[in-house]
TrEMBL record:
UniProt keywords, alphabetically: ATP-binding, Ligase, Membrane, Nucleotide-binding, Phenylpropanoid metabolism, Transmembrane, Transmembrane helix
Name by which UniProt lists this protein: 4-coumarate--CoA ligase
Keyword Plastid annotated: no
GO biological process: phenylpropanoid metabolic process
Domain AMP-binding enzyme C-terminal: 469-544
PANTHER family attached to this UniProt entry: LONG-CHAIN-FATTY-ACID--COA LIGASE (PTHR24096), PEROXISOMAL OPC-8:0-COA LIGASE 1 (PTHR24096:SF413)
Residues spanning the membrane: 255-277
The AMP-dependent synthetase/ligase domain, residue ranges: 48-418
Record InterPro entries: AMP-bd_C, AMP-bd_C_sf, AMP-binding_CS, AMP-dep_synth/lig_dom, ANL_N_sf
UniProt superkingdom: Eukaryota
GO MF term set: (E)-caffeate-CoA ligase activity; ATP binding; trans-feruloyl-CoA synthase activity
Pathway(s) per entry: Phytoalexin biosynthesis; 3,4',5-trihydroxystilbene biosynthesis; 3,4',5-trihydroxystilbene from trans-4-coumarate: step 1/2
Family: Belongs to the ATP-dependent AMP-binding enzyme family.
Amino acid sequence: MAEITGNSSNIDPRSGFCKANSTFYSKRKPIPLPSNESLDVTTFISSRAHHGKIAFIDAATGRRLTFSDVWRAVDAVSTSLFTDFGIRKGHVILLLSPNSIYFPIVCLAIMSLGAIITTTNPLNTAREIAKQISDSKPVLAFTIPELIPKLADSNLPIVLLSSDLVPVGSTSNKLRIVTSIEEMMRKESSQAGSRVRERVFQDDTATLLYSSGTTGASKGVVSSHRNLIAMVQTVSNRFKLDEGNQTFICTVPMFHIYGLVAFATGLIASGSTVVILSKFEMGEMLTAIQKFSATYLPLVPPILVALVNNAEIIRKKYDLRSLHSVLSGGAPLSKEVIEGFSEKYPGVTILQGYGLTESTGIGASTDSAEESRRYGTAGLLSPNMEAKIVDPDSGEALSCNRTGELWLKGPSIMKGYFFNEEATASTLDSDGWLRTGDLCYIDEDGFIFVVDRLKELIKYKGYQVPPAELEALLLTHPEISDAAVIPYPDKDVGQFPMAYVARKSGSTLSESGVMEFIAKQVAPYKRIRRVAFVSSIPKNPSGKILRKDLIKLAVSKI
């Protein structure tokens, strides 16, 4: 029987619900967290016993980094940042890169100084990246040569994650290439063991990841070292990684909370090997599983669906016998998908998870095949996590099997939004409860089910697309008088953005014209892929778009 973390005699051991305060408590065994207030997440990870030898493998080149290599590199990079570039506690540093064996090294080095890492999607446009730079105000950037043009107007000194193509020390169009990470790692300063650093506390900020908002304005999520330490403990405990060497395939993006928590910090804490692919490509992923005898495969639902639909071809071409678990996040899996996968890959267990950037990727999970067969569930509450189901209209906290907004509270919940008191106050209450924006219910056995989203975000292949951002761009078109963007269901990608557009009188603007206008301004995952023209956009008396009416209209024509 799983353990209840609450201490009230009013707690139902089956559901975890406490009648006295209308709170659901985790049924998972509580995980102890370090009590030392002066502790950074890098020191915490490096102090854990490592049972493995190889930390990271570059799938494309075969280059391997042992755990000793990793910690030497982290120490060398942090020393260079401190000594050569004056990086201090509280400074923000931007990391713009696809997945790389250098990604976790940079993150760990920055956080060891008490400096703050902010990541961004390499698919984002220069305009989108510039907005994040303006908000977060980094003092230095790490990137690869191919992405340098996206920082052309930033004035930031740049450290290259590769010395190819662009000579270190070169300057053009305001760019300053100051060094490369290879150069940093070669120095291995003699000061490494004796330098004096500023003391870092668990409550200090470690990461500043950007989360899409319904308003269209992306918000910086401030997470502390305590948040990340709690995440590391949860990840390591969930997969029982201390019990033997495991190999993970990393195709999910490291800049995203899913990739960052699982690979850049979480998994190296227990000696697992992470095989890193710079981007997702189905054939390369399957080849890597076979070549490196991978045991765990994290992915998003559309990829899992593709594995089911192409199972016959895949099993003939690739040997996947080493694989024993796939980890799915982003959206609950349907009964058909779970049963189809289990039938075609009988030796592989599906484990699901639910989390947000604001909860450091932690919230709920299914940790066994039996739990995943509770079809449609996001899982049981993670260890040390509490939940409420709150009626969005009345504010009443509800009991089992009643639908309301999911609120979460626990050691991995963010500190707030970066210099955005209004957004923080509307998302975090004074007692530390995070309003997730997801409509859910919790059944009599403590399993969470996501019913809908209060937040109007579109989920494309696991990426979040705020419709308000696309609507604001559409309204800048000289031939568009009004517009609304909705999620359009798609079996391959989950959802994609569809636009309803009201043209100005006399306009002959075409569907392709609308799509091309947006495509030039946003990352590929945000592109509008379907357009319908209407005489006017339906709105309520206060002027809010009636998105649900448009969704019904779109779905009725499928």
